[in-house]
Amino acid sequence: MTSRTKGLTLSLAKIPLLVDSPAGYLVALRQKLAEQYGDWPGRSAIVREIGRTSKKRATRWTEWSSGANRSRWNRIIIQQLVDREWLDSEYNELDSLIDFIDPSRNLAGAKHVLVAGAGLCRIADPLCISSVDSVTCTDLSWEMLYFGRELLAGRHRNLPTEFGGPRLFFEIENGRFKKKTRRLAFGEPSTRISRSKIRFAVTDAFAIDRSLEKNVLVAPYLLDAFTGDECETLLIRLGQQLGLGQSIVIVMSLTAGRLPDVVVRGLRATGFDVDTLKLHPNLPYSFSRVDFGFVRQERATILVRATKTRLPVAKKIRLSLNLSPSFVAELKRTKMRAVGVDGSGAPSELSSTERNYLLAASESANCAQFAEQLSPRAVSADVTETALACLTSKGLLRLSGMS
Predict the structure, then answer these.
(1) What is the DSSP string of 193-232?
(2) Domain tally for the chain?
(3) Rounded to whole angstroms, how far apart are CA atoms 348 and 107?
(4) Burial of 299 (0-12, 13-18, 19+ CB in 10 A)
(5) Which of 249, 283, 308 is the last residue of a domain?
(6) Across all residues in the chain, what is the average pLDDT?
(7) Of the residues 187, 223, 252, 270, which has the fewest C-beta atoms closer than 10 A?
(8) Strand stretches in 335-391, DSSP E
């Protein structure tokens, strides 16, 4: 999926919007900025740019309803992530993560690194080792990429006002809570050499824009933001979007629903051989959508590095619609276009092409059958990839690997 239409790529503050329906994304973002954020230097210019850009492309809110649902981060959580990731203090936990990733070893031979779910982007700095030509930070949240870019450049004053004040923490001392105020000091910005390597783009991890250069994809805690079969679907989609000889590095905390065998099964189903699998019994845990309390969270965490050595066996990737059987039956019987996404009730209007994707998926048990349903005479990998990107990014399709 791509935001390019007739040669046009939309961007905001020089950050490309490589998503489906980028003008609709801007409409949702403008409302979010108005509702959740106070003023900050440059905010008025950004709002004016959104107004000018979104007028160039006719749009409706419903075109971006699925993306608005997936961008789960709100201002309060982003501010807490700024503290966790960027405060220059003993409580910053990024160093432990970088030691675990060990870029000099696990990025050896990498030229173009793509970080999926980069958030506030501080992880980009230590990934800029000498052999790497570019590090592209991607996320579905434009504001996190924007704030991260400003922090990497040392432009702290360009953050929202509420991000820059002193912080009140509660610490436990002698069995009692004690208030403690700390003045804010941000971590060191990137060097000029590193900043020249770091790029930014808004894109959906389920449908990474093909124009982005990569031979290694790094996903730090990205899978933690999803649960159950959606987590496995994202893992398979990441694998499907990499080519032969390319590598993936996954960092994931372990819970009952996220175990190493799920990762290994999904990677093998998409043609990967595991090069490295290591466990940290108590890595500080900061980067999911939960556990943002001040108390230090530690969890068993795995790192998996794998290389794609063969093409995926499509018949070993199961698929199922994330829709009720009665809804699918009604979809076949009529030409209905509105679909509720992720149980939110927010309508997402389908084009006739997207409706055909759903109908093909309803007749398929695996990706091989799906490809045949889409193009029975000449199976096209591009058509299948576009269809999978479309349906999984909207939360309408689930994928799973076979053992």
Answers:
(1) HHHHHEEEEE-BTTB--TTS--SEEEEESTGGGS-HHHHH
(2) 3
(3) 39
(4) middle
(5) 308
(6) 83
(7) 187
(8) 338-340, 347-349
Per-residue pLDDT tens over the stretch 59-88? 443 444 444 444 567 888 888 788 778 877
Same domain for 22 and 96?
no
What element of type H or E holds 146?
helix 142-152
Instruction: Report d(CA 364, CA 237) in Å as an integer.
Output: 18
Residues 6 or more apart whose Cβ sits within 8 Å of residue 101: 126, 218, 220, 249, 251, 303
For residue range 345-388, what is the model confidence (pLDDT) as tens digits? 444 567 788 888 999 999 999 999 999 998 765 556 788 999 99
Q: Is there a domain that residue 378 lies in?
A: yes
Name the token pair of 302.
């795995």
Contacts of 198 (CB under 8 A, 6+ apart): 121, 124, 125, 128, 134, 135, 136, 137, 149, 152, 190
Q: Residue holding tokens 């990498």?
A: 110
Which residue in this structure is represented by tokens 């070993």? 316
| Percent of the chain topping pLDDT 70 | 83
Tell me, yes or no, whether 31 lies in a domain: yes
Domain-located, residue 278? yes
Distance CA 213, CA 33 (A): 30
Compare 390 and 179 and report the one with higher pLDDT.
390
- Per-residue pLDDT at 202 exceeds 80: yes
- Main-chain phi, psi angles of 35, to 5 degrees: -85, -30
Same domain for 183 and 212, yes or no, is yes
Cα–Cα dist 62/39, whole Å: 28
pLDDT tens per residue across span 264-320:
889 999 999 999 999 998 887 644 433 344 455 678 899 999 999 999 888 999 999
Which range marks the domain in which residue 15 is found? 11-66
Is pLDDT of 23 > 70? yes
Mean pLDDT of 238-265: 90
DSSP structure class, residue 17: B
Its pTM surpasses 0.70: yes
282 & 135 share domain: yes
> Are 19 and 203 in contact, with CB atoms under 8 Å apart?
yes
- If asked whether residues 169 and 247 sit together in one domain, one would say yes
Which residues, in sequence order, are CB contacts of 112 under 8 Å at separation 6+?
132, 133, 134, 136, 213, 214, 215, 216
